[in-house]
Design brief:
The two termini are 22 Å apart. The protein is 30% helix and 30% strand. Strand 5 and strand 6 form a beta hairpin. The chain has helices at residues 24-36, 52-60, 97-110, 118-126, 176-190, 202-210, and strands at 12-15, 42-45, 64-75, 89-93, 136-143, 146-156, 159-167, 195-199, 214-223. The radius of gyration is 18 Å and the shape is globular. It is an alpha+beta fold and 227 residues long. The strands form two sheets. A five-stranded mixed sheet has the order 1-2-9-3-8. The chain has a four-stranded antiparallel sheet with strand order 4-5-6-7, sandwiched between helices.
Length: 227
């Protein structure tokens, strides 16, 4: 997956089966491809692709395990979203270019991305589909009119997933991340989905648990260190 943004965690490679010696040439091709376009990337290994040989092959290819992240899911059938924690906090769906611009700036600063990637990230966000028929539903939370948190719901066939959950540093630990997550959950339920998934940072996992998510497995993440 190539977003064009030189930030590791939004350019992904993943294997859906354990790797073997026949995959070594493909791994080298992938490494060279990302190096050619000068992009950092993460290599995700979910449980279906994990094995001792997979670990050895990735390590021999120069990739280094940096973390294992919780993969979580929630049942939406009985999901009930309580009123917002603050009458001053409003969550709305992004439906125009101006709101998308605000979402871009808020998520960029919320993720504390390096300034070198601001233009690349702006180009990437501008490509997101905000039409009513889009499989992407993008949400922005405002506190007294000031944008403070973001999320994105992506749906495909019978699966719904939440991504790009961020809160501006000055507004963290106030429940806004929980509210923006619930907004995506409500939209998924209203669209007829019964379950929803996400991958969490260790700190974010506690927020998602409060929204009804449970951890079901962990994904290993590898990076290719820069020489």
């Amino acid at each position: 997956m190539n977003t064009g943004v030189n930030i590791s965690d939004i350019n992904w490679v993943w294997n859906e089966e354990p790797l073997n010696s026949n995959d070594i040439s493909d791994i080298e091709f992938i490494k060279e491809l990302y190096q050619k376009i000068n992009l950092r990337f993460w290599w995700w290994v979910y449980p279906c692709g994990q094995s001792v040989e997979t670990t050895h092959i990735l390590q021999n290819a120069g990739l280094r395990l940096i973390t294992s992240v919780p993969c979580m899911a929630a049942n939406l059938i009985n999901f009930y979203s309580e009123p917002s924690i603050s009458e001053n906090l409003k969550v709305s769906q992004v439906k125009n270019k101006n709101d998308l611009f605000l979402w871009r700036e808020t998520s960029f600063d919320g993720f504390e991305m390096h300034q070198r990637a601001r233009k690349q990230y702006g180009d990437f966000v501008a490509s997101l589909d905000i039409q009513p028929s889009s499989k992407q539903k993008i949400f922005l939370a405002y506190l007294k009119g000031v944008p403070v948190a973001t999320s994105l719901l992506f749906t495909h066939e019978n699966t719904a997933g939440i991504y790009y959950v961020s809160t501006l540093p000055a507004f963290r630990n106030k429940g806004f991340g929980l509210e923006i997550t619930k907004a995506a959950m409500r939209a998924a339920k209203e669209a007829g989905f019964q379950e929803i998934i996400l991958q969490a940072t260790p700190l974010g996992a506690t927020v998602y648990q409060r929204a009804g998510f449970k951890e079901y497995c962990r994904a290993d993440i590898y990076i290719l260190p820069r020489s």
